[in-house]
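Aim 2, interim progress. The first record below pairs a target sequence with its structure tokens.
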Amino acid sequence: MPAPASGSDRPPVARRLLYITEEQTAALVDEDLAMEAARTAFAATVHGSSLPSLAVHGSDPRNRFTLKPSASATHAGVKIGTYWPDNAEHGLPRHHSTLLLFDQTNGRIAVVLEVGTANAYRTAAADALAVDLLARAGATTLAVFGTGHQAAYEVEAVSRTRPIAQVLVVGRTAERAEQTSAALAANGHNARSVDAEEACSRADVIVTATTATSDDPPLFEAVWVRPGTHISCMGADAPGKRELPPELFRRARVFCDLPEQARRMGESQHAPTQTVLTPLGDVLTGHATGRTDDNDITVFDSSGIGVQDLYLGLALLKKMDISL
């Protein structure tokens, strides 16, 4: 019989699976952690390989989930993001996210992190990073299209990168917009609800965070957007979703997280084929130019990439003194 394997010939011993709950990650995450993870992630896209995401639906087509794989030189994983619209009827968030990180020695799952709240910080951090790199330095008025759970995170994150003095809220209904603006005001923001045309005519920065699709009218008219505006589009993350008027692409300089993915499932799936898409990571690292003039209209198309989730998860583990 062959001799038993010894030394380095022995297969690696599987470590105990770690499960980090939603309550744990929600207590650990904050804007600073999310922003630092976003900077690291977008810088990593320049020389690393960013893997495209997959958007599918559950057994009920109304229920959707996305798979966002990621890999660095030392770690790898996949985030599963879910959108179950009927959850609101049960007092649960419509969105949730679970991040799986691999044990690199044997390919098994080493850590499961529930990151529903952390994912909201992560999404807002990408928006805020784009605002920091692309918006005019003196931007003071922020318009937010969307009254879901993400809106408040977007306002908080953007307000840390620009001296936002006024927040204008646009919703599908006036009632929802008024509720959201009241909640923002209770958290110290000078917020009020307005219609879409007024929001665009006054805004220095526009954030769209809706579930709108190409079956819906665009959120606003292209001609309402004034020169110098920066727009961060956070809602389009699957084929068929759309928030912007396609005509706006002809007036704007467009930036994104991953060009090939933005063309397939981001806002840029509706852009003319000749539209140039500049990766935000290239701007962050000085490999590309961002805003060149105060009159530029800049658009950030955020379809969401797995490397954002990877570095967010690693930052959360580091805060817990856990290493892989």
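The second target in this work package is listed in the same format:
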Amino acid sequence: MSNARQSGFRRQTRGVDARRGRWLLAVTVVTVAAPVSAQTGPPAEPPADWEATAIDYSNVPYPHLVSYLEVEVYGDPYRLAYMDVAPAGSANGQTVVLFHGMNFFAGGFRPTIEALRNEGFRVIAIDRLGFGRSSKPDIHYNLHIPARNAKRLLDALGIERAAIVGHSMGGMVATRFASTYPETTTHVAMVNQIGLTDSRPGRAWADPAETYESVLNGTTYESVLRGHMRYYPNGWRTEYLEWVKVQYGLTLSGDWPRMARVRAAQRQILYEDPVVYEWQHIATKALVIGGAEDRLVADYPTLARNVAEELQNAELVIFPEVGHSPHFEIPEPFHAELVRFLRSDPDEPADQAWRDTDVGRAPGS
């Protein structure tokens, strides 16, 4: 569907269609005008003026001041980079922590940071170890590490409670944080989270050395670009190339062998540290939200509904004809839903109207 055409964005309501005698989704039709850049595909080759991305991202611009917290993992000291962004006006007293995905870093949350701070939220956007301006240790990674580091950061900043938002692999981190630190978590939002199933049955374990060789020798401009193009079913926009540039630029650095080891170790998390058994234990008010046309999974709406059903107190919002990164593709509708949820009383039950709809429900079920 072209960006120049109309797109419908749905959210659950309590309206009843008397003629059909069942619950329905309210449909809001939003006209999205395609920017000129949306008509231009990405370059077939990396632009000649692209430079290497420094392993510490020192030559990558961030939207706000980056600070650091000293953390210790496996007995060794590292630096955790983060942005602590104040509200752009009257503060509402709420803090939101943002966890990025595998192919991004905290700076990739630029539109979300601005949307939230403009609504009075204090925003903490973290570069997980192995990403962005944080240290890049060659260690065995798991989801406990970023969850614990985030808790340490909140403690250091004197923040007792916060809302947790995670995109893609960051949604897995958000799940782990909410299940581990329920007393700290006011809300949890999982945006097109990956790891929606346990991938181990019927799939052999991959030796990390083999994964490293695959990352080291198989990461090219074409492979990075192809991965990012999968995020956007409605076509390419010039602004998306920024994130390709940063990721591909790592391969141009003399530190690429080291960075490849870190990325390979992060990939192992998907197989070795699933979160699918934790949702049922999370009582925190939750939001499962994302684009229905997420090409990273076979059927995102069905899998997302399963997550919402496993959670004890969840809402479900699915955007039709939108892909893996709704905060880039449809920033205004997406952020409106996120803000609505984060403003809600954490002690009030989540809206369960989606249970009486067919959103993500398998035919005949």
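Confidence is low (pLDDT under 50) at residues 1-39. This observation will shape the mutagenesis plan for the next reporting period.
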